[in-house]
Design brief:
The complex is a heterodimer of chains A (about 120) and B (about 110). Chain A has about 120 residues and is mainly beta. Chain A contains no helices and 10 strands. In chain A, the strands form 2 sheets. Chain A has a 5-stranded antiparallel β-sheet with strand order 1-3-8-7-6, with no helix packed on it. Chain A has a 5-stranded mixed β-sheet with strand order 2-10-9-4-5, with no helix packed on it. In chain B, about 0% of the residues lie in helices and about 50% in strands. In chain B, strands 2, 4, 5, 6, 9, 10 and 11 form a 7-stranded mixed β-sheet that branches. Chain B has a 4-stranded antiparallel β-sheet with strand order 1-3-8-7, with no helix packed on it. In chain B, strand 5 and strand 6 form a beta hairpin. Chain B is globular, with a radius of gyration of 13 Å. Chain B starts with a strand and ends with a strand. The chains are: A mainly beta (about 120), B mainly beta (about 110).
Chain lengths: ~120, ~110
């Protein structure tokens, strides 16, 4: 597995604005996942995008993937105070015949604060 | 609630004591993972199981740490002779290893070693 690096480390916006977070990684991937973590809680899966997909939507979330640049972005539209959380990306590379399948490695995340 | 359950939610212990945490995964999930997270950092992988077999252990997992999943259902993580540096949130996650790669996390056990 490999680790993604999220950017920026922290993002502060007003309710109703859009929030964009970026993720970069180093080697080829099979898929990339985004997770959210509210303070003091476990991570919650948001969206998975496969290496042959370029864009994926889920409600107010839009994820893009550019495998040539080894990067992904997560856009949250019309943000709400409840979106305040840390966001993590997890790129995944299945080892052929290996046992790392399903093991994810997380970066430091982006801390998003949405002010009411 | 059919999500991943972790107990206890909080544990305060004195340095040198042993502690044990429990994780109950989603019932049909055959993969179970342990992660550790310190303040301001992302979760760090510790170990994982497929059914009852422990398939990988991180180098972070010193010999004071041991994890078991005796019947391929719940898992326990024991830390012996705790140190202050063991203070962290210990997260458990599970997944169904049949093309569904997303992890379902519990709420974690917050360990404080005094």
């Amino acid at each position: 597995s490999q680790q993604g690096e999220e950017d920026p480390q922290a993002l502060s916006i007003q309710e109703g604005e859009n929030a964009t977070m970026n993720c970069s990684y180093k080697t080829s991937i099979n898929n990339l996942q985004w997770y959210r973590q509210n303070s003091g809680r476990g991570l919650v899966h948001l969206i998975l995008i496969r290496s042959n997909e370029r864009e994926k939507h889920s409600g107010r979330l839009r994820v893009t993937l550019d495998t040539s640049k080894k990067s992904s972005s997560l856009l949250i539209t019309a943000s709400r105070a409840a979106d305040t959380a840390s966001y993590f990306c997890a790129p995944e590379n299945f080892r052929v015949g290996g046992t790392s399948y399903g093991k994810l490695t997380f970066g430091q995340g982006t801390i998003l604060t949405v002010h009411p | 609630d059919t999500g991943v359950s972790q107990n206890p939610r909080h544990k305060i212990t004195k340095r040198g004591q042993n502690v044990t945490f429990r994780c109950d995964p989603i019932s049909e999930h055959n993969r179970l993972y342990w992660y550790r997270q310190t303040l301001g950092q992302g979760p760090e992988f510790l170990t994982y199981f497929q059914n009852e077999a422990q398939l990988e252990k991180s180098r972070l997992l010193s010999d004071r740490f041991s994890a078991e999943r005796p019947k391929g259902s719940f898992s326990t993580l024991e830390i012996q002779r705790t140190e202050q540096g063991d203070s962290a949130m210990y997260l458990c996650a599970s997944s169904l290893a049949k093309g569904n790669e997303k992890l379902f996390f519990g709420s974690g056990t917050q360990l404080s070693v005094l």
